[in-house]
Amino acid sequence: MADTSTLDFCGEKIALMPRAGKASAKKTRAQIKMAIAAMEENGPPLPCEQRAMEKIQGRLRAVDIKEKYQVIDLGFLGMTRPEDKDGAKFPRFALYSADGDDPDAVFMVRRPLPIGESEESKDFRCVFSDNTFLPECVQTHYRKLAGEIRKKLPQAIGFKSEMADVIIPGPTRGKIREAQALFAPNHIFLVAETQNWGKADQEIEEMARDPLVIGIFANEAYYIDKFDPTPLENYVSREFTV
């Protein structure tokens, strides 16, 4: 457990799990590559073998991820902000897409289920503005909060947290680019403490404080980096003022 550690994040201690040992990862990687070579010995995989090949390649990617990054405990996503004027407690932390086209976080709280509507629509989701769902390991921490909010605000549909325009420091941007080679598209996120959840049709921008960068793979979260964002206005002033 030598690699176990904690991360200071907005006054909270967040647990980081051990990375995979290099020797173990090397052995597993060699075994998977041997399996791939054996499958390709008589030519490329047939269409009926494609899914099996994709699963094997996914295991190889998992080895690389577990060796490079520490698993981060996302339990802190269940924390709430103080009650608002209606007595509702919104999530203290929001996730914003680091590599998607639409980074705004939208916290969905659906209306009471109308007669005849599918049971699936009772499920509460935290999504992005383009309705891309967050991974299940994130959703599980928001569902209970969404249910409690709906009790206080029964007609509510959704609330949005929009991150202000910021510049990510070069070293962190480089780590995100590197992580994109391992994590699927739209699976790298910024996690930040949010001060406002406005109605989904409002524009309430806010400056995130020291966001985390995480990647999601196989329903587990991995810590990539933490950084101090630079507001766009400050960046332009600092870099281009003569």
Explain what this protein looks like in three dimensions.
- It is elongated, with a radius of gyration of 21 Å.
- It folds into two domains: 20-68; 78-238, no CATH class.
- The termini are far apart.
- A hairpin with a 2-residue loop joins strand 12 (212-217) and strand 13.
- The protein is built from five helices and 14 strands.
- It has 242 residues and is α+β, with helices and mostly antiparallel strands.
- Spatial gap, N to C terminus: 52 Å
Structural class: alpha+beta
Percent helix: 25-40%
Q: How many separate structural domains?
A: 2
Strand content: 15-25%
Low-confidence stretches: 117-123
The description of the largest β-sheet is: 5 strands, antiparallel
Number of helices: 5
Query: What strand order characterises the main sheet?
Result: 3-13-12-9-4
Order of helices and strands: EEHHEEEEHEEHEEEEEEH
Mean pLDDT: 76
Radius of gyration over C-alpha positions, nearest whole angstrom: 21 Å
> How many DSSP E strands?
14
Principal-axes shape call: elongated
Briefly summarize what is shown.
It contains five helices and 14 strands. It is of the alpha+beta class.
Question: Main attributes?
Answer:
242 residues, single chain, alpha+beta, 5 helices, 24% strand
Write the layout of secondary structure elements.
Layout (H helix, E strand, L loop, with lengths): L4 E5 L2 E5 L5 H18 L10 H19 L1 E2 L21 E5 L7 E4 L17 E3 L7 H17 L5 E6 L2 E2 L2 H10 L8 E6 L4 E2 L5 E2 L5 E6 L2 E7 L3 E2 H9 L2
Parallel strand pairs: 7-11
Antiparallel strand pairs: 1-2, 3-13, 4-9, 5-6, 5-7, 7-10, 8-14, 9-12, 12-13
Helix pairs in contact: 1-2
